[in-house]
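Quick review question:
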């Protein structure tokens, strides 16, 4: 029967007690946690945050080693801070951020590609003072989804560009932004003034018409008064 060839680190994980495989038991002697899902755009970068816990006393000058696997729990190593080494698919694209003495950090994958869409498992290794080397790994990895950068870059500016342009004009060039309002206000004032002038002229003409009508009316005496004057004075025409 065919048996797969395991690296020393993988063989060690297989032979470890069940507690080391998950690190999540009632004793809580050690554990490691990482997010279940992450998404990032193609060409961008992603931070796989992790935190771990252990109760052992570390050996003198001991360093915490962090490794990253992909696809499955016993998948291939793509990064190991002990060597350090990189998988050819991730060369110069993975970096570890773990301050000395801290128990939380992140693994960054930059310049993301569509092929990077996978499941990633963080593994921690320490050298203890009395129990030797201890290695444990998260049971459930982080599923990374790569989104299309083209969709994000084309949809974003189309919705935000008009707003940005509008703000740029109003803030950067006050005269150009305020001139349409000044013209509109001037037109409104001019129209209102014209209407007022027309109304005043109309009132003046109306009063003049009434006055002229009154003078014409009283210049011609009533019919009864006209006949009386004619009878009294034959010269009255």
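Suggested answer, residue by residue:
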């Amino acid at each position: 029967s065919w048996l797969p060839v395991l690296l020393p680190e993988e063989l060690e994980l297989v032979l470890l007690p069940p507690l080391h495989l998950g690190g999540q038991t009632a004793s809580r002697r050690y554990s490691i946690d990482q997010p279940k899902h992450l998404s990032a755009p193609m060409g961008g970068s992603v931070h796989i945050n992790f935190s771990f816990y252990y109760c052992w006393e570390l050996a003198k000058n001991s360093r915490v080693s962090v490794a990253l696997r992909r696809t499955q729990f016993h998948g291939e190593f793509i990064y190991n801070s002990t060597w350090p080494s990189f998988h050819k698919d991730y060369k110069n694209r993975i970096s570890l951020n773990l301050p000395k003495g801290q128990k939380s950090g992140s693994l960054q994958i930059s310049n993301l590609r569509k092929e990077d869409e996978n499941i990633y498992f963080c593994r921690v290794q320490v050298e203890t003072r009395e129990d030797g080397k201890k290695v444990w790994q998260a049971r459930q990895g982080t599923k990374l989804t790569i989104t299309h950068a083209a969709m994000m870059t084309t949809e974003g500016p189309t919705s935000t560009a008009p707003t940005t342009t509008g703000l740029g004009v109003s803030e950067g060039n006050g005269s150009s932004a305020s001139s349409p309002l000044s013209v509109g206000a001037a037109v409104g004032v001019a129209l209102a003034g014209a209407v007022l002038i027309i109304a005043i002229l109309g009132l003046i003409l109306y009063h003049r018409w009434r006055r002229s009508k009154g003078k014409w009316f009283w210049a011609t005496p009533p019919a009864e008064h006209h006949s009386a004057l004619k009878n009294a004075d034959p010269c009255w025409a």
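Why it works: The chain has five helices and eleven strands. The longest helix spans residues 174-219.
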